[in-house]
Amino acid sequence: MAIHDGASVVPTLSAWTRSFPLEGRARLLLLMPAVGFLLLVFAYPLVLIAVRSVTDPAPGFGHYVQIATTDVYVRVLASTFGLALSVTLATFVLGYPVAYALARSRGFVQALLVMLVLVPFWTSLLVRTYAWMVILGRYGVVNKTLMALGLTDEPLKLLHTGFATHIGMVHILLPFMILPIWSVMSRIDRSLIMAARSLGASQFSTFLGIYFPLTLPGVFSGALFVFILALGFYITPALLGGPSDLTISMLIAQQVSELLAWGFASALAVTLLVVTLALILVAGRLLGLDKIWEGLK
Amino acid sequence: MIADREWESIGRLPQLLLYAICALVLLFLMLPIFIVVPISFSSSLYLDFPPRGFSLQWYERFLNSPEWTAAFWTSLQVAILATLLACALGTAAALGLTRSRFPGKSLVVGLLLSPMIIPVIVLAIALYAVYAKADLVGSVVGLVLAHAALGLPFVIVTVSATLQRVDERLEHAAVSLGATPFRAFWHIVFPLIRPGMIAGAVFAFIASWDEVVIALFISGTRSATLPKRMWEGLRTEIDPTIAAVSTLLIVVSVVLMLVVEWLRRRSARLAGSMPGGGGN
Protein backbone atom coordinates (compact mmCIF):
# COMPACT_ATOMS: atom_id res chain seq x y z
CA MET A 1 0.00 0.00 0.00
CA ALA A 2 1.08 3.53 -0.69
CA ILE A 3 1.46 4.12 3.03
CA HIS A 4 4.91 2.61 2.64
CA ASP A 5 5.69 4.88 -0.26
CA GLY A 6 7.57 7.86 1.20
CA ALA A 7 6.67 10.10 -1.71
CA SER A 8 2.94 9.85 -1.19
CA VAL A 9 2.73 10.31 2.57
CA VAL A 10 2.04 14.03 2.14
CA PRO A 11 0.32 14.04 -1.21
CA THR A 12 -1.40 16.58 -3.30
CA LEU A 13 -4.67 15.49 -4.87
CA SER A 14 -3.04 15.11 -8.25
CA ALA A 15 -0.28 13.00 -6.74
CA TRP A 16 -2.94 10.70 -5.28
CA THR A 17 -4.75 10.20 -8.50
CA ARG A 18 -1.50 9.71 -10.36
CA SER A 19 0.30 7.33 -8.05
CA PHE A 20 -2.52 5.62 -6.26
CA PRO A 21 -4.33 3.33 -5.56
CA LEU A 22 -1.65 0.74 -5.27
CA GLU A 23 0.55 1.86 -8.09
CA GLY A 24 4.21 1.50 -8.89
CA ARG A 25 6.77 0.74 -6.26
CA ALA A 26 4.22 0.46 -3.47
CA ARG A 27 2.62 -2.41 -5.30
CA LEU A 28 5.92 -4.20 -5.65
CA LEU A 29 6.49 -3.93 -1.92
CA LEU A 30 3.40 -6.09 -1.46
CA LEU A 31 5.11 -8.86 -3.40
CA MET A 32 8.18 -8.88 -1.23
CA PRO A 33 6.95 -10.91 1.76
CA ALA A 34 5.67 -13.79 -0.42
CA VAL A 35 8.76 -13.79 -2.65
CA GLY A 36 11.11 -13.64 0.35
CA PHE A 37 9.20 -16.40 2.10
CA LEU A 38 9.34 -18.74 -0.90
CA LEU A 39 13.01 -17.97 -1.54
CA LEU A 40 13.74 -19.04 2.03
CA VAL A 41 11.40 -22.01 2.53
CA PHE A 42 11.20 -23.26 -1.04
CA ALA A 43 13.99 -22.13 -3.36
CA TYR A 44 16.86 -22.22 -0.85
CA PRO A 45 16.32 -25.89 0.18
CA LEU A 46 16.07 -26.87 -3.49
CA VAL A 47 19.32 -25.08 -4.33
CA LEU A 48 21.02 -26.89 -1.44
CA ILE A 49 19.80 -30.22 -2.81
CA ALA A 50 21.18 -29.35 -6.23
CA VAL A 51 24.53 -28.45 -4.69
CA ARG A 52 24.55 -31.61 -2.61
CA SER A 53 23.93 -33.75 -5.69
CA VAL A 54 27.36 -32.74 -7.06
CA THR A 55 29.33 -32.46 -3.81
CA ASP A 56 28.23 -35.30 -1.52
CA PRO A 57 30.30 -37.36 -0.84
CA ALA A 58 32.82 -36.18 -3.47
CA PRO A 59 32.66 -33.29 -5.96
CA GLY A 60 31.66 -34.27 -9.49
CA PHE A 61 28.79 -35.60 -11.54
CA GLY A 62 29.30 -39.20 -10.44
CA HIS A 63 25.71 -39.65 -9.21
CA TYR A 64 24.24 -38.51 -12.51
CA VAL A 65 26.58 -40.82 -14.42
CA GLN A 66 25.51 -43.64 -12.11
CA ILE A 67 21.80 -42.91 -12.69
CA ALA A 68 22.27 -42.83 -16.45
CA THR A 69 24.41 -45.96 -16.70
CA THR A 70 23.05 -48.34 -14.06
CA ASP A 71 20.42 -50.72 -15.38
CA VAL A 72 18.27 -50.67 -12.24
CA TYR A 73 18.00 -46.89 -12.15
CA VAL A 74 17.36 -46.55 -15.86
CA ARG A 75 14.62 -49.12 -15.47
CA VAL A 76 13.03 -47.20 -12.56
CA LEU A 77 13.08 -43.98 -14.60
CA ALA A 78 11.62 -45.75 -17.62
CA SER A 79 8.90 -47.52 -15.64
CA THR A 80 7.91 -44.29 -13.87
CA PHE A 81 7.55 -42.64 -17.28
CA GLY A 82 5.62 -45.63 -18.56
CA LEU A 83 3.32 -45.56 -15.55
CA ALA A 84 2.71 -41.81 -15.93
CA LEU A 85 2.00 -42.27 -19.64
CA SER A 86 -0.46 -45.12 -19.26
CA VAL A 87 -2.23 -43.36 -16.38
CA THR A 88 -2.51 -40.24 -18.56
CA LEU A 89 -4.00 -42.26 -21.44
CA ALA A 90 -6.44 -44.03 -19.14
CA THR A 91 -7.63 -40.79 -17.54
CA PHE A 92 -8.15 -39.34 -21.01
CA VAL A 93 -10.19 -42.32 -22.24
CA LEU A 94 -12.32 -42.39 -19.09
CA GLY A 95 -12.44 -38.65 -18.48
CA TYR A 96 -13.36 -37.33 -21.93
CA PRO A 97 -16.88 -38.82 -22.02
CA VAL A 98 -17.56 -37.52 -18.50
CA ALA A 99 -16.38 -34.03 -19.45
CA TYR A 100 -18.61 -34.23 -22.54
CA ALA A 101 -21.62 -35.23 -20.46
CA LEU A 102 -20.87 -32.38 -18.01
CA ALA A 103 -20.70 -29.87 -20.85
CA ARG A 104 -23.93 -31.15 -22.39
CA SER A 105 -26.06 -31.48 -19.27
CA ARG A 106 -27.98 -28.73 -17.55
CA GLY A 107 -29.63 -27.99 -14.24
CA PHE A 108 -29.99 -30.75 -11.69
CA VAL A 109 -28.26 -33.42 -13.77
CA GLN A 110 -25.24 -31.19 -14.24
CA ALA A 111 -25.09 -30.29 -10.54
CA LEU A 112 -25.25 -33.99 -9.67
CA LEU A 113 -22.50 -34.91 -12.13
CA VAL A 114 -20.31 -32.08 -10.84
CA MET A 115 -20.72 -33.31 -7.27
CA LEU A 116 -19.86 -36.87 -8.25
CA VAL A 117 -16.61 -35.64 -9.79
CA LEU A 118 -15.76 -33.11 -7.08
CA VAL A 119 -16.40 -35.18 -3.95
CA PRO A 120 -13.68 -37.72 -4.75
CA PHE A 121 -11.48 -34.89 -6.05
CA TRP A 122 -11.62 -33.20 -2.64
CA THR A 123 -11.19 -36.39 -0.66
CA SER A 124 -7.74 -36.96 0.80
CA LEU A 125 -5.39 -38.94 -1.41
CA LEU A 126 -4.47 -41.13 1.54
CA VAL A 127 -8.10 -41.92 2.29
CA ARG A 128 -8.71 -42.95 -1.32
CA THR A 129 -5.57 -45.07 -1.39
CA TYR A 130 -6.68 -46.76 1.84
CA ALA A 131 -10.08 -47.45 0.28
CA TRP A 132 -8.42 -49.22 -2.65
CA MET A 133 -6.40 -51.31 -0.21
CA VAL A 134 -9.68 -52.41 1.36
CA ILE A 135 -11.34 -53.03 -1.99
CA LEU A 136 -8.45 -54.90 -3.64
CA GLY A 137 -7.04 -56.70 -0.59
CA ARG A 138 -6.73 -60.48 -0.30
CA TYR A 139 -10.05 -60.69 1.53
CA GLY A 140 -11.24 -57.41 0.15
CA VAL A 141 -14.50 -56.47 -1.48
CA VAL A 142 -13.56 -57.61 -4.98
CA ASN A 143 -12.19 -60.99 -3.94
CA LYS A 144 -15.12 -61.71 -1.63
CA THR A 145 -17.56 -60.88 -4.40
CA LEU A 146 -15.72 -63.03 -6.93
CA MET A 147 -15.61 -65.97 -4.50
CA ALA A 148 -19.25 -65.57 -3.52
CA LEU A 149 -20.17 -65.69 -7.20
CA GLY A 150 -18.05 -68.79 -7.58
CA LEU A 151 -15.86 -67.16 -10.22
CA THR A 152 -12.73 -68.05 -8.32
CA ASP A 153 -11.92 -70.38 -5.41
CA GLU A 154 -8.69 -68.74 -4.37
CA PRO A 155 -8.52 -65.01 -3.68
CA LEU A 156 -6.74 -63.28 -6.57
CA LYS A 157 -3.63 -61.25 -5.91
CA LEU A 158 -4.81 -57.75 -6.76
CA LEU A 159 -3.24 -55.60 -4.06
CA HIS A 160 0.50 -54.90 -4.22
CA THR A 161 0.56 -55.18 -7.99
CA GLY A 162 1.07 -52.75 -10.85
CA PHE A 163 -2.65 -53.15 -11.56
CA ALA A 164 -3.56 -51.77 -8.11
CA THR A 165 -1.15 -48.84 -8.59
CA HIS A 166 -2.83 -48.04 -11.91
CA ILE A 167 -6.33 -48.20 -10.44
CA GLY A 168 -5.39 -45.95 -7.51
CA MET A 169 -3.56 -43.39 -9.61
CA VAL A 170 -6.21 -43.22 -12.34
CA HIS A 171 -8.80 -42.72 -9.62
CA ILE A 172 -6.90 -39.88 -7.98
CA LEU A 173 -5.90 -38.12 -11.21
CA LEU A 174 -9.13 -38.49 -13.21
CA PRO A 175 -10.64 -35.17 -12.03
CA PHE A 176 -7.48 -33.36 -13.15
CA MET A 177 -8.30 -34.56 -16.68
CA ILE A 178 -12.07 -34.04 -16.53
CA LEU A 179 -12.10 -30.47 -15.16
CA PRO A 180 -9.87 -28.73 -17.77
CA ILE A 181 -11.59 -30.54 -20.65
CA TRP A 182 -15.01 -29.57 -19.32
CA SER A 183 -13.85 -25.98 -18.87
CA VAL A 184 -12.80 -25.78 -22.54
CA MET A 185 -15.88 -27.64 -23.80
CA SER A 186 -18.27 -25.29 -22.03
CA ARG A 187 -16.73 -22.34 -23.90
CA ILE A 188 -17.02 -23.83 -27.39
CA ASP A 189 -19.14 -21.78 -29.73
CA ARG A 190 -22.14 -23.98 -30.49
CA SER A 191 -22.86 -22.22 -33.76
CA LEU A 192 -19.74 -23.84 -35.22
CA ILE A 193 -21.24 -27.27 -34.59
CA MET A 194 -24.62 -26.26 -35.99
CA ALA A 195 -22.96 -24.73 -39.03
CA ALA A 196 -21.11 -27.96 -39.76
CA ARG A 197 -24.30 -29.99 -39.35
CA SER A 198 -26.40 -27.68 -41.48
CA LEU A 199 -23.78 -27.85 -44.21
CA GLY A 200 -24.32 -31.57 -44.32
CA ALA A 201 -21.51 -33.02 -42.21
CA SER A 202 -22.45 -36.23 -40.46
CA GLN A 203 -22.58 -36.39 -36.67
CA PHE A 204 -19.42 -38.41 -36.62
CA SER A 205 -17.41 -36.16 -38.90
CA THR A 206 -18.67 -33.04 -37.10
CA PHE A 207 -17.41 -34.47 -33.85
CA LEU A 208 -14.08 -35.60 -35.26
CA GLY A 209 -13.47 -32.63 -37.56
CA ILE A 210 -14.86 -29.72 -35.52
CA TYR A 211 -15.71 -30.51 -31.93
CA PHE A 212 -12.79 -32.70 -30.91
CA PRO A 213 -10.06 -30.38 -32.27
CA LEU A 214 -11.69 -27.48 -30.40
CA THR A 215 -11.42 -29.41 -27.14
CA LEU A 216 -7.73 -30.24 -27.62
CA PRO A 217 -6.41 -27.33 -25.48
CA GLY A 218 -8.34 -28.80 -22.56
CA VAL A 219 -7.10 -32.29 -23.35
CA PHE A 220 -3.50 -31.08 -23.50
CA SER A 221 -3.61 -29.16 -20.26
CA GLY A 222 -5.40 -32.06 -18.52
CA ALA A 223 -2.82 -34.49 -19.89
CA LEU A 224 0.02 -32.24 -18.78
CA PHE A 225 -1.32 -32.02 -15.22
CA VAL A 226 -1.95 -35.72 -14.97
CA PHE A 227 1.42 -36.65 -16.44
CA ILE A 228 3.41 -34.28 -14.22
CA LEU A 229 1.56 -35.24 -11.07
CA ALA A 230 1.87 -38.93 -11.95
CA LEU A 231 5.64 -38.61 -12.40
CA GLY A 232 5.98 -37.47 -8.79
CA PHE A 233 3.58 -39.99 -7.21
CA TYR A 234 4.82 -41.59 -4.04
CA ILE A 235 2.08 -42.52 -1.56
CA THR A 236 -0.22 -44.47 -3.87
CA PRO A 237 2.43 -46.68 -5.57
CA ALA A 238 4.13 -47.23 -2.19
CA LEU A 239 0.92 -48.56 -0.62
CA LEU A 240 -0.75 -50.28 -3.58
CA GLY A 241 2.19 -51.40 -5.72
CA GLY A 242 4.40 -54.43 -5.37
CA PRO A 243 8.05 -54.40 -4.37
CA SER A 244 9.07 -54.41 -8.03
CA ASP A 245 6.93 -51.39 -8.98
CA LEU A 246 9.40 -48.79 -7.81
CA THR A 247 8.83 -45.18 -8.90
CA ILE A 248 11.41 -42.37 -8.89
CA SER A 249 9.78 -40.84 -5.82
CA MET A 250 9.89 -44.14 -3.93
CA LEU A 251 13.53 -44.56 -4.89
CA ILE A 252 14.33 -41.05 -3.59
CA ALA A 253 12.54 -41.70 -0.30
CA GLN A 254 14.25 -45.06 0.08
CA GLN A 255 17.70 -43.61 -0.55
CA VAL A 256 17.18 -40.94 2.09
CA SER A 257 15.35 -42.78 4.85
CA GLU A 258 16.85 -46.25 4.56
CA LEU A 259 20.31 -45.73 3.11
CA LEU A 260 21.03 -42.12 4.10
CA ALA A 261 22.53 -41.76 0.61
CA TRP A 262 21.90 -38.04 0.48
CA GLY A 263 24.09 -37.24 -2.51
CA PHE A 264 22.52 -39.89 -4.70
CA ALA A 265 18.98 -39.09 -3.53
CA SER A 266 19.63 -35.42 -4.28
CA ALA A 267 20.76 -36.26 -7.82
CA LEU A 268 17.58 -38.30 -8.36
CA ALA A 269 15.49 -35.44 -6.96
CA VAL A 270 17.18 -32.93 -9.27
CA THR A 271 16.58 -35.26 -12.22
CA LEU A 272 12.87 -35.50 -11.39
CA LEU A 273 12.66 -31.75 -10.84
CA VAL A 274 14.41 -30.86 -14.09
CA VAL A 275 12.24 -33.25 -16.12
CA THR A 276 9.09 -31.79 -14.55
CA LEU A 277 10.13 -28.18 -15.14
CA ALA A 278 11.27 -28.95 -18.69
CA LEU A 279 7.90 -30.51 -19.48
CA ILE A 280 6.09 -27.46 -18.15
CA LEU A 281 8.30 -25.02 -20.04
CA VAL A 282 7.99 -26.92 -23.33
CA ALA A 283 4.24 -27.30 -22.88
CA GLY A 284 4.05 -23.66 -21.89
CA ARG A 285 5.76 -22.64 -25.13
CA LEU A 286 3.57 -24.88 -27.24
CA LEU A 287 0.23 -24.21 -25.58
CA GLY A 288 0.68 -20.86 -23.91
CA LEU A 289 1.17 -21.09 -20.15
CA ASP A 290 -1.77 -18.79 -19.46
CA LYS A 291 -4.09 -21.30 -21.03
CA ILE A 292 -2.72 -24.03 -18.80
CA TRP A 293 -3.32 -22.04 -15.63
CA GLU A 294 -6.75 -21.19 -16.93
CA GLY A 295 -7.49 -24.87 -17.26
CA LEU A 296 -6.42 -25.42 -13.69
CA LYS A 297 -8.78 -22.90 -12.17
CA MET B 1 -35.16 -27.37 -24.22
CA ILE B 2 -31.99 -26.50 -26.08
CA ALA B 3 -30.23 -29.25 -24.18
CA ASP B 4 -32.84 -31.78 -25.35
CA ARG B 5 -32.35 -30.86 -28.97
CA GLU B 6 -28.61 -31.16 -28.56
CA TRP B 7 -28.93 -34.56 -27.03
CA GLU B 8 -31.05 -35.65 -29.94
CA SER B 9 -28.47 -34.32 -32.32
CA ILE B 10 -25.96 -36.90 -31.18
CA GLY B 11 -28.41 -39.74 -31.74
CA ARG B 12 -30.04 -42.29 -29.45
CA LEU B 13 -27.41 -44.98 -29.44
CA PRO B 14 -24.36 -42.76 -28.83
CA GLN B 15 -26.34 -41.01 -26.12
CA LEU B 16 -27.08 -44.29 -24.32
CA LEU B 17 -23.48 -45.36 -24.71
CA LEU B 18 -22.30 -42.03 -23.31
CA TYR B 19 -24.64 -42.37 -20.33
CA ALA B 20 -23.45 -45.91 -19.66
CA ILE B 21 -19.76 -44.98 -19.80
CA CYS B 22 -20.32 -41.97 -17.56
CA ALA B 23 -22.27 -43.99 -15.03
CA LEU B 24 -19.46 -46.54 -14.83
CA VAL B 25 -16.73 -43.91 -14.53
CA LEU B 26 -18.65 -42.00 -11.86
CA LEU B 27 -19.33 -45.23 -9.97
CA PHE B 28 -15.59 -45.92 -10.11
CA LEU B 29 -14.93 -42.42 -8.75
CA MET B 30 -17.38 -42.78 -5.88
CA LEU B 31 -16.64 -46.43 -5.04
CA PRO B 32 -13.98 -45.77 -2.37
CA ILE B 33 -16.33 -43.49 -0.45
CA PHE B 34 -19.22 -45.95 -0.74
CA ILE B 35 -16.97 -48.63 0.77
CA VAL B 36 -15.05 -46.75 3.46
CA VAL B 37 -17.95 -44.91 5.08
CA PRO B 38 -20.05 -48.06 5.82
CA ILE B 39 -17.01 -49.97 7.10
CA SER B 40 -16.32 -47.25 9.65
CA PHE B 41 -19.70 -47.99 11.28
CA SER B 42 -19.12 -51.74 11.36
CA SER B 43 -19.79 -53.71 14.52
CA SER B 44 -17.47 -56.56 13.60
CA LEU B 45 -13.85 -56.67 14.66
CA TYR B 46 -12.50 -57.04 11.14
CA LEU B 47 -12.78 -55.22 7.89
CA ASP B 48 -16.10 -56.51 6.71
CA PHE B 49 -18.04 -55.37 3.72
CA PRO B 50 -20.95 -55.11 3.78
CA PRO B 51 -20.77 -54.57 7.56
CA ARG B 52 -22.87 -57.00 9.61
CA GLY B 53 -24.11 -54.50 12.15
CA PHE B 54 -23.96 -50.88 13.17
CA SER B 55 -21.71 -49.55 15.88
CA LEU B 56 -19.62 -46.52 16.72
CA GLN B 57 -16.80 -48.57 18.22
CA TRP B 58 -14.17 -47.36 15.74
CA TYR B 59 -15.04 -43.74 16.42
CA GLU B 60 -14.80 -44.44 20.16
CA ARG B 61 -11.45 -46.04 19.65
CA PHE B 62 -10.29 -43.00 17.70
CA LEU B 63 -11.48 -40.61 20.43
CA ASN B 64 -9.98 -42.72 23.22
CA SER B 65 -6.58 -43.08 21.61
CA PRO B 66 -4.19 -40.34 22.74
CA GLU B 67 -2.05 -41.06 19.67
CA TRP B 68 -4.89 -40.39 17.23
CA THR B 69 -6.31 -37.37 19.04
CA ALA B 70 -2.86 -35.79 19.42
CA ALA B 71 -2.33 -36.24 15.69
CA PHE B 72 -5.73 -34.66 15.03
CA TRP B 73 -4.92 -31.56 17.09
CA THR B 74 -1.47 -31.23 15.54
CA SER B 75 -2.99 -31.38 12.06
CA LEU B 76 -5.64 -28.82 12.93
CA GLN B 77 -3.14 -26.45 14.51
CA VAL B 78 -0.70 -26.75 11.59
CA ALA B 79 -3.42 -26.34 8.96
CA ILE B 80 -4.93 -23.24 10.60
CA LEU B 81 -1.58 -21.51 11.10
CA ALA B 82 -0.37 -22.43 7.60
CA THR B 83 -3.64 -21.13 6.14
CA LEU B 84 -3.34 -17.80 7.96
CA LEU B 85 0.26 -17.36 6.83
CA ALA B 86 -0.52 -18.36 3.22
CA CYS B 87 -3.52 -16.00 3.15
CA ALA B 88 -1.61 -13.01 4.44
CA LEU B 89 1.34 -13.49 2.10
CA GLY B 90 -0.80 -14.61 -0.85
CA THR B 91 -3.32 -11.77 -0.70
CA ALA B 92 -0.56 -9.17 -0.51
CA ALA B 93 1.22 -10.83 -3.43
CA ALA B 94 -1.97 -10.97 -5.51
CA LEU B 95 -2.53 -7.25 -4.88
CA GLY B 96 1.05 -6.63 -5.98
CA LEU B 97 0.73 -8.71 -9.13
CA THR B 98 -2.61 -7.58 -10.47
CA ARG B 99 -2.41 -4.86 -13.11
CA SER B 100 1.26 -4.28 -12.46
CA ARG B 101 4.10 -4.48 -14.95
CA PHE B 102 7.74 -4.84 -14.11
CA PRO B 103 10.74 -6.56 -15.62
CA GLY B 104 11.01 -10.20 -14.64
CA LYS B 105 7.32 -10.45 -13.73
CA SER B 106 6.89 -13.86 -15.35
CA LEU B 107 9.86 -15.14 -13.34
CA VAL B 108 8.29 -13.92 -10.10
CA VAL B 109 4.93 -15.46 -11.04
CA GLY B 110 6.75 -18.69 -11.85
CA LEU B 111 8.38 -18.73 -8.43
CA LEU B 112 5.13 -17.92 -6.64
CA LEU B 113 3.14 -20.65 -8.38
CA SER B 114 5.79 -23.36 -8.55
CA PRO B 115 5.03 -25.01 -5.18
CA MET B 116 1.82 -26.16 -6.87
CA ILE B 117 3.52 -28.27 -9.51
CA ILE B 118 6.79 -29.40 -8.01
CA PRO B 119 7.01 -33.10 -7.04
CA VAL B 120 6.40 -33.06 -3.27
CA ILE B 121 9.01 -35.71 -2.55
CA VAL B 122 11.71 -33.36 -3.86
CA LEU B 123 10.60 -30.56 -1.56
CA ALA B 124 10.21 -33.04 1.30
CA ILE B 125 13.81 -34.24 1.26
CA ALA B 126 15.11 -30.72 0.56
CA LEU B 127 13.29 -29.37 3.62
CA TYR B 128 14.30 -32.37 5.69
CA ALA B 129 17.97 -31.60 5.04
CA VAL B 130 17.57 -27.91 5.96
CA TYR B 131 15.36 -28.59 8.98
CA ALA B 132 17.75 -31.18 10.36
CA LYS B 133 20.41 -28.47 10.58
CA ALA B 134 18.03 -25.82 11.93
CA ASP B 135 16.56 -28.23 14.51
CA LEU B 136 13.08 -27.83 13.03
CA VAL B 137 12.38 -31.54 12.45
CA GLY B 138 9.40 -32.57 14.55
CA SER B 139 8.30 -28.99 15.19
CA VAL B 140 4.95 -27.40 14.46
CA VAL B 141 6.75 -24.30 13.15
CA GLY B 142 8.58 -26.37 10.54
CA LEU B 143 5.36 -27.95 9.33
CA VAL B 144 3.56 -24.62 9.23
CA LEU B 145 6.28 -23.01 7.09
CA ALA B 146 6.36 -25.93 4.65
CA HIS B 147 2.57 -26.18 4.35
CA ALA B 148 2.17 -22.43 3.98
CA ALA B 149 4.51 -22.61 0.97
CA LEU B 150 2.26 -25.29 -0.56
CA GLY B 151 -0.91 -23.28 0.09
CA LEU B 152 0.42 -19.92 -1.07
CA PRO B 153 -0.11 -20.45 -4.85
CA PHE B 154 -3.76 -21.38 -4.31
CA VAL B 155 -4.40 -18.12 -2.45
CA ILE B 156 -2.58 -16.11 -5.13
CA VAL B 157 -4.55 -17.76 -7.95
CA THR B 158 -7.98 -17.33 -6.34
CA VAL B 159 -7.42 -13.79 -5.04
CA SER B 160 -5.92 -12.68 -8.39
CA ALA B 161 -8.93 -14.11 -10.20
CA THR B 162 -11.27 -12.09 -7.96
CA LEU B 163 -9.16 -8.95 -8.29
CA GLN B 164 -9.37 -9.13 -12.09
CA ARG B 165 -13.09 -8.51 -11.76
CA VAL B 166 -12.83 -5.61 -9.30
CA ASP B 167 -13.36 -2.30 -11.01
CA GLU B 168 -10.34 -0.23 -9.98
CA ARG B 169 -12.29 2.98 -10.51
CA LEU B 170 -14.16 2.20 -7.28
CA GLU B 171 -10.94 2.47 -5.35
CA HIS B 172 -9.86 5.56 -7.25
CA ALA B 173 -13.21 7.12 -6.45
CA ALA B 174 -12.86 6.40 -2.73
CA VAL B 175 -9.40 7.92 -2.64
CA SER B 176 -10.36 10.98 -4.64
CA LEU B 177 -13.24 11.54 -2.21
CA GLY B 178 -10.71 11.75 0.59
CA ALA B 179 -10.35 8.21 1.92
CA THR B 180 -6.86 7.20 3.00
CA PRO B 181 -5.38 4.39 0.92
CA PHE B 182 -5.82 2.07 3.87
CA ARG B 183 -9.50 3.01 4.34
CA ALA B 184 -10.09 2.64 0.62
CA PHE B 185 -8.60 -0.82 0.75
CA TRP B 186 -10.41 -1.89 3.89
CA HIS B 187 -13.87 -0.62 2.91
CA ILE B 188 -13.81 -1.06 -0.86
CA VAL B 189 -11.27 -3.60 -2.09
CA PHE B 190 -11.26 -6.02 0.84
CA PRO B 191 -15.02 -6.77 0.83
CA LEU B 192 -14.85 -7.33 -2.93
CA ILE B 193 -11.98 -9.81 -2.79
CA ARG B 194 -13.17 -11.58 0.37
CA PRO B 195 -14.81 -14.47 -1.54
CA GLY B 196 -11.52 -15.11 -3.34
CA MET B 197 -9.65 -15.02 -0.05
CA ILE B 198 -12.03 -17.49 1.55
CA ALA B 199 -11.78 -19.86 -1.40
CA GLY B 200 -7.99 -19.53 -1.32
CA ALA B 201 -8.00 -20.17 2.42
CA VAL B 202 -10.03 -23.35 1.96
CA PHE B 203 -7.59 -24.62 -0.67
CA ALA B 204 -4.61 -23.73 1.52
CA PHE B 205 -6.24 -25.45 4.49
CA ILE B 206 -6.89 -28.65 2.59
CA ALA B 207 -3.39 -28.57 1.07
CA SER B 208 -2.00 -28.70 4.60
CA TRP B 209 -4.68 -30.89 6.21
CA ASP B 210 -4.25 -33.71 3.65
CA GLU B 211 -0.51 -33.38 3.11
CA VAL B 212 1.36 -36.65 3.70
CA VAL B 213 4.78 -36.71 2.06
CA ILE B 214 6.38 -33.66 3.68
CA ALA B 215 4.87 -34.58 7.04
CA LEU B 216 6.37 -38.07 6.75
CA PHE B 217 9.84 -36.60 6.56
CA ILE B 218 9.75 -33.55 8.79
CA SER B 219 7.10 -34.12 11.45
CA GLY B 220 9.17 -36.69 13.35
CA THR B 221 7.41 -38.50 16.18
CA ARG B 222 6.96 -35.40 18.30
CA SER B 223 4.38 -33.76 16.09
CA ALA B 224 2.93 -36.46 13.84
CA THR B 225 -0.01 -35.16 11.80
CA LEU B 226 -3.19 -37.12 11.14
CA PRO B 227 -2.13 -38.23 7.63
CA LYS B 228 1.24 -39.31 8.98
CA ARG B 229 -0.41 -41.33 11.74
CA MET B 230 -2.70 -42.89 9.12
CA TRP B 231 0.25 -43.77 6.91
CA GLU B 232 1.92 -45.53 9.83
CA GLY B 233 -1.31 -47.38 10.56
CA LEU B 234 -1.64 -48.49 6.93
CA ARG B 235 1.85 -49.94 6.88
CA THR B 236 1.23 -52.09 9.96
CA GLU B 237 -2.42 -52.97 10.46
CA ILE B 238 -5.45 -52.13 8.31
CA ASP B 239 -7.62 -51.43 11.28
CA PRO B 240 -11.18 -50.07 10.87
CA THR B 241 -10.14 -47.14 13.09
CA ILE B 242 -8.56 -45.82 9.92
CA ALA B 243 -11.95 -46.12 8.22
CA ALA B 244 -13.44 -43.97 10.98
CA VAL B 245 -10.66 -41.39 10.61
CA SER B 246 -11.14 -41.53 6.83
CA THR B 247 -14.86 -40.88 7.18
CA LEU B 248 -14.14 -37.85 9.36
CA LEU B 249 -11.69 -36.59 6.73
CA ILE B 250 -14.26 -37.13 3.97
CA VAL B 251 -16.81 -35.09 5.94
CA VAL B 252 -14.31 -32.25 6.41
CA SER B 253 -13.45 -32.31 2.68
CA VAL B 254 -17.08 -32.30 1.58
CA VAL B 255 -17.97 -29.41 3.87
CA LEU B 256 -15.01 -27.36 2.59
CA MET B 257 -15.88 -28.26 -0.99
CA LEU B 258 -19.43 -27.02 -0.49
CA VAL B 259 -18.10 -23.72 0.86
CA VAL B 260 -15.99 -23.23 -2.27
CA GLU B 261 -18.80 -24.28 -4.61
CA TRP B 262 -21.19 -21.90 -2.89
CA LEU B 263 -18.70 -19.03 -3.27
CA ARG B 264 -18.11 -19.95 -6.90
CA ARG B 265 -21.79 -19.96 -7.74
CA ARG B 266 -22.35 -16.72 -5.87
CA SER B 267 -19.51 -14.91 -7.64
CA ALA B 268 -20.66 -16.33 -10.99
CA ARG B 269 -24.14 -14.96 -10.29
CA LEU B 270 -22.73 -11.57 -9.30
CA ALA B 271 -20.58 -11.45 -12.43
CA GLY B 272 -23.58 -12.14 -14.63
CA SER B 273 -24.62 -15.54 -15.88
CA MET B 274 -21.65 -17.62 -16.85
CA PRO B 275 -21.97 -20.88 -18.68
CA GLY B 276 -20.97 -24.21 -17.20
CA GLY B 277 -17.44 -24.31 -15.93
CA GLY B 278 -16.77 -20.71 -16.90
CA GLY B 279 -17.64 -19.44 -13.46
CA ASN B 280 -14.59 -20.82 -11.75
Topology:
The complex is a heterodimer of chains A (297) and B (280).
Chain A (H helix, E strand, L loop, with lengths): L12 H7 L4 H32 L6 H8 L1 H34 L2 H16 L2 H12 L4 H8 L13 H24 L4 H9 L4 H29 L3 H6 L7 H10 L4 H26 L1 H8 L1
Helix pairs in contact in A: 2-13, 4-8, 4-10, 5-8, 6-8, 8-10, 9-10, 10-13, 10-14, 12-13, 13-14
Chain B lengths: L1 H8 L2 H29 L16 H8 L1 H32 L7 H9 L6 H15 L5 H25 L3 H9 L4 H29 L3 H6 L7 H11 L3 H31 L10
Helix pairs in contact in B: 2-12, 3-12, 4-7, 4-9, 4-11, 7-9, 8-9, 9-12
Give the gist of this structure:
With 297 residues, chain A is mainly α.
Walkthrough of the structure:
The complex is a heterodimer of chains A (297) and B (280). By secondary structure, chain A is an all-alpha fold. Chain A has helices at residues 13-19, 24-55, 62-69, 71-104, 107-122, 125-136, 141-148, 162-185, 190-198, 203-231, 235-240, 248-257, 262-287, 289-296. Chain A folds into 2 domains: 1-55, no CATH class; 61-296, Orthogonal Bundle (MetI-like fold), CATH 1.10.3720. Chain A has 14 helices and no strands. The longest helix of chain A has 34 residues, at 71-104. With 280 residues, chain B is an all-alpha fold. Chain B has helices at 2-9, 12-40, 57-64, 66-97, 105-113, 120-134, 140-164, 168-176, 181-209, 213-218, 226-236, 240-270. Mean pLDDT of chain B is 86; it is low at 273-280. Chains A and B meet through α1, α2, α4, α5 and α6 of A and α1, α2, α4, α5 and α6 of B.
